[in-house]
Predict the structure.
Amino acid sequence: MTEDNKHQHDHKHDHSGHHHALNAAFWLTAVFMVVELLGGYISNSLALMADAGHMASDVFALGLALVAQKITARPANTSMTYGYGRAKVLAAQINGLSLWFLSGWIVWEAIGRLNKPPEVDGMMVMVIATVGLVVNLIVMRWMHGSHDLNTQAVYWHVVGDALGSVAAIISGLVIMLTGWMPVDPILSFLVAGILAWGGWRLVKTTTLELMDAAPQDADYDRILACINQVEGVESAHHIHLWTLPSGKRALSAHIKLNEMDGWLALLPQLINELKACGVHHTTLQPEAHCHDDTSSVDALVVQHGQSN
C-alpha cells in the first residue's frame, strides 16, 4: 500500500468512525433530552430545564455536524477546487452562535425566577441531572481526541452540558438540605456563563479559519527560520500560512536564491524542513536576485502536497 493510499484509507476509516460516534451520540442525547425536559417541567426546576435546553442545542449541534460531514464527503470539482471541507467550519460557527442564543434565554428566565422563586422538587432534580451527567460523559468520551473542528464544536457543547448537569445536581442537593429555592436560578446564571464562553470560543476559532488566518498555534518565526537555514536560500518573502479544509496547514512563499541552478536540489530540503514545522502542503516560487537592480526574476512555481 502506497503512502497516499494509506492516507486515504486512514482518512476514510477516521471519517467512518466519527460518523458512527456522532450518530450514536445524536440518538442518545435526543432521547435523554426529552426525559430531562419532562423532568424539569414536573419538578419545576429551571436548572434542569436549562440543562434540557442545552441538551436540545446538543441535538441540534450533532444533527448539524452529521449534515456537514455528509457535505464534506463530496468530492472536489472545478467550481469547488478545495472541496466542501469548509462546511464543517460553517456548522461549527452556527453551533457557537446557538450557544449564545441559549445563554440569553437562560439568563432571561433566571432573572424572572429570582424575583419569585418557585417550589422545586430537589430529589427529582438530583436523580435526573445525575443520569444526564452520565449521558454527557459517555458522549464526551466518544467525541474526545478528535482534531476535526466540527466534532470539537459538538464536544464543547457537551462539556458545557455536563457542567450544567453538575449545577443541577448541586441545586437539587441544596434544595433538599436547606429548602433555599433561589439556588436554582442562581446556578442557571453559571450555566449561561459557561455556554456564552463556549460560544465565543467557537465563533472566534471558526471566524479566523474562514478568514484564512494563520493557525493560532503556528510558530511563524520558527517556520521562517527553517526556510532561511537551508543553504542556498538568500531570503523568503510573501509568506502566507493558513489551514486547509482538511485541517492541514498550507504555506505559500517566494524563495530568493543565491543561484537558480540549485533550486531542484533545494526543493526537497525545503519541503522536509516545512514538514518538520507541521506544514504539509506547500507552494514555493523560486526567485533569482538580479545584480543590476533591486527587482527579481520569477521562475518556476512548484507545489507540493494535496489541496484537500
